[in-house]
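DM from R.C. (forwarded with permission)

"hey, sorry to bug you on a friday — could you get me a structure for this? deadline for the figure draft is monday and I only need the backbone to look sensible"
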Amino acid sequence: MLQRPTTRTAAIVFAATAATAALSFAFVTSASASADGSAPKAAPAAAAALPSVSGSPEAAFTRIADFYGAYIDAVYDGDGKTADQLRSFYLAKPLQAELKKWEETNHANGVLRAQNVPSQWKVTSTGSGTGKTSATVTLTWGGSTTEIHVQADLATKKITSIKD
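My reply, with the result:
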């Protein structure tokens, strides 16, 4: 007579019982009638979809979104060195010079077109053509928003224009 180890058998029985109980609970919870006897309502979704971000280092539009996300983080954290490095990497040289003049004239951050940091940001593609890709950057400041129009060169992927 062949005998199985009792611990393995007990573990299998326990796992099967736990799975059955979980399924029974889920069924009863989602299919039970309401207190007034009306038909059961659909169970709410277990969890809302989690956010995701994707991109490609080959896409100029992704570079715009990457720049604004990282730049806002650096400015928010008070990390001027990183903010300057991001500007140097993502922005074309002529735009860097243009922003410096704009900032001296307006006493504000030329990338954000403001003196403070937004609480949220969103980058939306507005299309590509003639060697450029365009995007609108929507910045949220408390309850209000502003839009910035940004262009990047498709060949170099450098941001070439930032306008209100």
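R.C.: lifesaver. The CA atoms of residues 69 and 154 lie 20 Å apart.
me: no worries. The longest strand covers residues 120-129.
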